[in-house]
Amino acid sequence: MRGWLGYYGIAEMETLMKQWNEWLRRRIRMYIWKQWKKPKTRVENLKKFGMPELQACRNGNTRKGYWAIAGSGILQHTITNERLARRGYYDISEAYKSMHSI
After folding, report:
1. Spans in the chain with pLDDT lower than 50
2. Which of 8, 45, 67, 91 matches a 20 to 30 Å C-alpha distance to 97?
C-alpha cells in the first residue's frame, strides 16, 4: 500500500482513498469474524471486547453473512478503528492526507 500510495499519491483522489479505507476496514473485520468460526467463540470474543453478555449472545449466534456482520454495528463498535490501528492497520486515507499537506 505504501509503495502504491507513493507512486499514485500525486493524483487528487481523497474521496477514493477514504472509500478504499472504509472498504479495507470492513474486509478486515469480516476476516476476524470468519476466524472466530463457532458461535461460542464469537460470544466469548465479543464479551472480551466489552459487549454486554446478553447482547453478545444474541449477536454471536446470528445467522447473517460475514459481509453483513462486518458492516453492521456489531463489529464496528467492538473492533473499532483505534483497535485496528493499534494492531498495525495502515490507514491509507491518513497517509494520503499527510502526503498532500506537505
Report:
1. none
2. 67
- What is the spatial distance between Cα 57 and Cα 2, in angstroms, rounded to a whole number? 39
Question: Minimal CA–CA distance to 36: which of 21, 52, 47, 25?
Answer: 47
First to last CA, the chain: 19
* Number of Cα atoms under 13 Å in the Cβ half of residue 22: 7
Helices (H), 1-102: 2-8, 14-35, 39-48, 53-60, 66-71, 73-76, 81-86, 92-100
Report the C-alpha gap between 22 and 87 in whole angstroms: 17
Residues 9/23/75/81 CA torsion (nearest 10 deg): 10
Which residue type is seen at 94?
Answer: E
Q: Extract the C-alpha cell encoding 51.
A: 459487549
The model's pTM is 0.78
